[in-house]
Amino acid sequence: MFFTPQSRDKSVLPHDPLKAIVAPRPIGWISTLSTDGIANLAPYSFFNAVGGMPPMLMFASEGLKDSARNAAETGEFVFNYASEHLEKEMNASSLPAPAGVSEFEHLNIPYAASETVSAPRVADVCAALECKVTSVIETVDVEGAKTGAVMIIGQVMGVYINDDYVKDGRFDVNLAKPVTRLGYLDFGYTDGLHEMPRPGWDGTVHNP
């Protein structure tokens, strides 16, 4: 079959398949602090790294929700690693809490102070990345009309890693067990890894 986003036959595909096709996606579990000092926590499935030098992350909000608004107003946010041992807390923090309500407090999720930004991190995460906002982008469609979505890009200023998840000089994903977003109500686990060294043009092998 082929269709445009506007012509999808909802009798055949009642649910939009886009998020299931672009999968798995890392979950951006974003913590922020409002200008009133209220700590916010919410997961975003439109999230990824966008650069390595300097390291930069992005998350996109369909509508100016609390996390995006706080990040835009304060210039800071924290990415918290979404792992299996915290998946219930991560999912619970997606509830549509009213503005001014802290998900940390409402859900009794312990938090810890960050080192380089004011926004806290989830206390029990495997890793967290503290970011300063570099860009706030209101996305537009092909006709130039605003979509209502906002993309927040931040530069990583500080890295927290729980030492228990470092093995042989690497952050061990097998130990950290990330949860990924697959579309609809589906989430995925990491069942195992395998390495594939990248080939060089001269026949050499590139290791990380």
Q: Give the total of domains.
A: 1
Task: Please mark out the parts with pLDDT under 50 across 5 or more consecutive residues, or reply none.
Answer: none
Strand content: 35-45%
Number of strands: 16
Brief summary:
With 208 residues, the chain is mainly beta. Helix content is 13%, strand content 40%. The longest helix has 9 residues, at 66-74.
List the SSEs and their pairings.
Blueprint: H1 18-21, E1 25-26, E2 28-33, E3 39-44, E4 47-52, E5 55-62, H2 66-74, E6 76-80, H3 87-92, H4 103-106, E7 111-112, E8 121-122, E9 127-140, E10 146-161, E11 166-167, E12 170-171, H5 173-176, E13 179-183, E14 186-189, E15 198-199, E16 205-206
Antiparallel strand pairs: 1-13, 2-3, 2-6, 4-5, 5-10, 6-9, 7-8, 9-10, 11-12, 13-14, 15-16
